[in-house]
Amino acid sequence: MKTDNMDIVSAGPVLEDLLAIIEKNDIPEHIYLSRSAVESKRNALGIIEEPMPKILELLGIRSLIVSSSYNLASLRALHIDMPDTAKEEYIWPSIRKDEVIKELQLLFRHCRTVGFDNWADIASASHVWDGLLMDVIKPIERNDLEFIFYLGDPMVKLSFLVGEALDIVSEFSLNGHVTFALDESEAINLWKILNGVSKETPIGQQTYVDLRKKYYSIFRTMNIARVLIYTTTTTMLFSEEEQLVLARKVLEHDVEVGANARLNFIEGFNIGLALKLDMARCITLGLVTLAAQGENNSDPEKKDLAKYVQDWIADLQRTTTINLYGE
Q1: Could you give the C-alpha distances from 296 to 78, 271, 278, 305, in angstroms and in order?
Q2: In angstroms, rounded to a whole number, what is the distance separating the alpha carbons of residues 66 and 61?
């Protein structure tokens, strides 16, 4: 793996490819299970979107993509008796019933991608995800699943719990490809924890190279396929095969930090993975769905996604013209 530089991805060709994909009508049939969906519909990318069954919310899952041949009825019919005052270590034992495990295994046999919640925001995340991995995912003996994990702010947890979470996330790599996503502040806080640096200790002015080295060290700490770090202006990807940086189109602050911002990004990124696009196109499709959904304050249509991509391309061309002619 290269460590001395990163490939700078030109957004123009990526966007041109995505525009063609968005405008096509023959996207393969999948079902996108989303926490934000309230009814069955076909979303702007042409994929059927369904409300997520309640049990998946208990598992700390934001979204999944499953094959259209999977029947959701049995999963929706499952009833889980949760103790009124369930402590985190009791949540998975309450779920771990034979009929539930059997149905979850069937689900994951038909699954393509899984997007999880912020680990730091869920008290039971480590217990539940470890149980899900050991009792559901490992027994079906798949190694081609795509997992997307968000850490959240690690400073709200004890450092040994953060280390435990990283180990669990890494374990998922034995059954597929793990993408570990963090924003800039989360990445810096994780670097501090991994290096024994106090939260209050300032790290001083950081150059691009300084930050890249810190992000790369996070990737080397974990045995996973990819670490994705995003700021308001760029996204960086670290993997064994490639390191790349992609400039973003700057969004309004309310869109960038909106309640569903990560869910909206995962939608596009998930679908890119399901379509077997390369990482630059998966990331960009995630950014497009994030922006289009946030700016419309509702579910965008195909034309809204296409317009956002066209506007982004126009901005790139305008910038190029200014640079060429000094306007």
Answers
A1: 35, 20, 27, 10
A2: 13
pTM, two decimals, is: 0.90
> Shortest CA distance to 75 belongs to which of 115, 138, 31, 23?
31
Please state, in angstroms and rounded to a whole number, the distance separating the CA atoms of residues 267 and 77: 25
Whole-number Cα distances in Å, 268 to 263, 288, 311? 9, 7, 18
3-state secondary structure of 186: helix
Tokens coding 277: 């696009």
Is residue 87's pLDDT more than 60? no
What is the CA angle 216-180-292, rounded to 5?
A: 110
Ranges 41-55, 187-201, 247-261: which has the least confidence: 247-261
- Residues with Cβ within 8 Å of 282's Cβ and at least 6 positions away in sequence, in order, are 268, 269, 272, 273
Task: Report the candidate in 246, 243, 223 with the shortest Cα–Cα distance to residue 233.
Answer: 246
H helix or E strand, kind and range, residue 267: helix 261-274
Distances from the Cα of 112 to the Cαs of 29, 87, 103, in angstroms?
A: 12, 31, 16
Give pLDDT tens digits for 147-160.
Answer: 999 999 999 999 99
Provide φ and ψ at 279, rounded to 5°: -65, -40
280-to-8, 77, 243 alpha-carbon distances in Å:
10, 39, 10
Q: What is the pLDDT of residues 206-222, one digit of tens each?
A: 888 899 999 999 999 99
CB crowding 167-194: b at 16 or more within 10 Å, else e: ebbebbeebbbbbbbbbbebbbbbbbbb
d(CA 94, CA 90): 6
Which residue is it, tokens 């061309």? 317
Query: In the structure encoding, which two tokens stand for residue 193, read together?
Result: 């924890």
Q: Taking Cα atoms as reference points, which of 187, 263, 256, 181 lies closest to residue 226?
A: 181
